[in-house]
Design goal:
This protein has 415 residues and is mainly α. The protein is built from 17 helices and 3 strands. The chain has 3 domains: 57 residues, no CATH class; 97 residues, Type II secretion system (T2SS), domain F (Receptor-associated Protein); 245 residues, Type II secretion system (T2SS), domain F (Receptor-associated Protein, Up-down Bundle), CATH 1.20.81.30. Helix 10 crosses helix 11. The chain is flat and about 90 Å long. The N terminus is likely disordered.
Amino acid sequence: MAVTPSSRDKIEAKKFYPYVWQGINRKGQKISGEMQGENPNQVKAELRKQGVNVSKINRKSQSLFSKYSGAIKPMDIAMISRQITTMLSAGVPLVQTLRLLASSHEKTSMRDLLSGICAEVESGIPLSQALKKHPRHFDDLYCDLVAAGEQSGALEQIYDRIATYREKAEALKSKIKKAMMYPAAVLGIAIIVTSILLLFVVPQFEDIFKSFGAELPAFTQMVIALSRFLQHSWYFIAGGVILAVFLFVRAHRNSQTVRDKTDKALLKLPIIGMILHKACMARFASTLSTTFAAGIPLVDAMVSAAGASGNALYRDAVMAVRNEVMAGMQMHIAMRTVEVFPDMVTQMVMIGEESGSIDDMLTKIAGIYSQQVDDAVDGLATLIEPLIMVVLGVLVGGLVVAMYLPIFKLGSVIK
C-alpha cells in the first residue's frame, strides 16, 4: 500500500516518552509506576486495559546527565538484536516486537531510534531499508544480513546469527581495549610521577645542595639539569604534545593513508601487535562465516569481512583474495598468495572447501583465535602488574638515588 509523504511524516514523527503515573487497581489499592507512550492519553488507555484507573500522570523529566548517558553504544545494538531474536522465536510479529522494545527501553535515544524504525516498517518499508537510514548504528554488514533474512524468509535465524556475531564482536573489542589499557596506564603513571618529582621535589634538593660548596656527582647534575629544563619549558613540551596529538587525530580522521600506516604500525608493536593480529583473524573469520552462512555469495561476503577485520593490512589482503576468487582461484590458494594468513587458517579453509562446510570451518577458526586473544590478554594482565612496579621503581628509585648521592658523599667526607 502506498504511503503519501504527509502520512509518512506523521508516522516518522511518532516518539515515545516516559510517563510517571499514579492510580488505583481493581482491588482498590493505590499503585504507581512508569510507562512509555506517545502521549498521556495513550498511556491512560493502556493502563485502563490493565485495570488501572489513573489519577495522576506526568511526563518524566530528563536531566542533562541522563541525556548524555543515553548515547547509543554498540553493545546496545547487540542487546537489542538478541531481544529481537528472542521475541521473533517466540512468535511475536516483527512490528509488535519493535513497538514493545521501543516502549520499554531505558534509553531515550534508543527508544527514539526504535520508534522511527518501527514507524518505517509499519508504513511498508522493509526492515533492512529502514535500518540503512541509520548507518551510524547499523553498518552495511548488519543491513545486508537482514536483507538476506527477509529475502529467504528466515529472518529469525538470521537475527540469531547477527546477535551472536555482535555479542562476540563486542566481547572481542572489549578484550582488545583491556589489552591496550594496561601499557597506556603504565606509561601514563610513569610520566605523571616522574614529572611531579622533577618539578617539585628535585628543586628542593637543589637548594640544599647549593650550601654544600662541593662538586655534585654527574648523575645528580644530569637530573638537576633535566629538572631545570622541565621547569622552564614544561608549557612548550605540554603544548607540543597536545598539538601533536591534535594533528595526528585530525590526520587519522581525514586521511586514509594515515589510518592505513597507523594500522600497520600497531601490528608491529611487541606483545600488543600479536594480540591485534589474532583479533583481526578472529573478526575476519567470524564475519565471513556469518555472512556466508546467511546465504550471501562468498565474493560479496568477503567485502564485509574485509571491512570488519579492523586493520588495513588484513583488509587489503582479504580484498586481494576476493579478486583472485572472482578470477576462478580457490580461496585457500588465494589466501596463500597474499602471505598474511597462517598455514593453519589456509589448511582449515582448504578442508572446508573440499567438504562443503567452509562456514563451519571459519566458525572454528574464529573460536580458536578468540580463545588465543583471551589467553594473551590474561597473560598480559599477569605480566603487566610486576612490570608497573619495575618501571615505577626504576624511575622513582633513580631520582631518589640521584638526590641522595651528594648526601652520601658528604657523609663520607665528614668521616
